[in-house]
Structure formats: C-alpha cells, structure tokens
Amino acid sequence: MAMDKKKIDSLLSDAYDIIQKKFPTAVPKEFKGYVDSFGAAVTMGSLLAAIAFIGREKDGVDRTKLPPMIAELVSNAELKPCGKNQTLFEYVKQQPKDPQVRENILNATIAIKLALKLFPVEKEGKEHAETQLETAE
C-alpha cells in the first residue's frame, strides 16, 4: 500500500488546526515520539493492537491524545468517517479487514507528523522537569 501524497497534502491544514486545538502553546516533547511509534506499529503489525497501545495511559505517560486526533482528522476528511462519539479503536473494530481504513489512518498519522514540525516543542518533558525540581530542592 503506497503513501498517497495528494491525500496527505489535503489533510495537512486540518491536521495543523487539530494540533493547535490540543496544544495551544507548545507540543510536549514526547508526543512526536508517540506519533512515530504509532506509525511504525501500524506499518509493522496490527492496526487494532497499535491503537490499543497508543490509546492508554501507563506509568504517567499519556499517549491518549493521539487516537482522537487521528479520528477527528479522518472524520473531517470524510474518509469513511468515524462516528461522532466513536473511538478510533471502535471505528477500526467495525471494519477490521478494510484496507482503506488502514490507509486513511496511516495518511492521517503522516499528516499529523508533518504538521507537528510547524509547532514549537516544550523545552522540557514532564519527567525531566520533575527531576530538575527534585534536584533543585
């Protein structure tokens, strides 16, 4: 399945707006890594497993903002849209074998990854900031 450059270009403006809503001042440093690992997980393995992994919070690491951003981008672009109150996992679960769904999610993820380059990154991640605070005391 090839990357659709025209589709990704058409998604960039909406991806920019979605990121700006979620992160009005700066994008957390670790968020770019979440997008990278999600894209790799989808490409190398199961779409549902990748969504389940990225859609949970564990050990103080919050990855939960990415799936709703992808779902919103897919819905805005009318690419077999997600239902209004439907999670990305539920959307994929309803049509697990549809290659168009997988392609739409990958295209949306790539558009988010590219649009992230237009935003400032927080100077310090949460873990690093807490370490500095503890050291300063």
Derived from helix and strand composition plus strand pairing, the structural class reads: mainly alpha
Largest β sheet strand count, sense and barrel closure: 2 strands, antiparallel
The sequence of SSEs as H and E is: HHHEEHHHH
Neighbour order of strands in the largest sheet: 1-2
- How many β-strand stretches? 2
Q: What sort of overall outline do the alpha carbons produce when their principal axes are compared?
A: globular
Distance between the termini: 53 Å
DSSP strand (E) fraction?
Answer: under 5%
Spans of at least 5 consecutive residues with low confidence: 127-137
The total of helices stands at 7
From the alpha-carbon coordinates, what is the Rg to the nearest angstrom?
A: 16 Å
Averaged pLDDT: 80
How helical, in percent, are the residues?
A: 55-70%
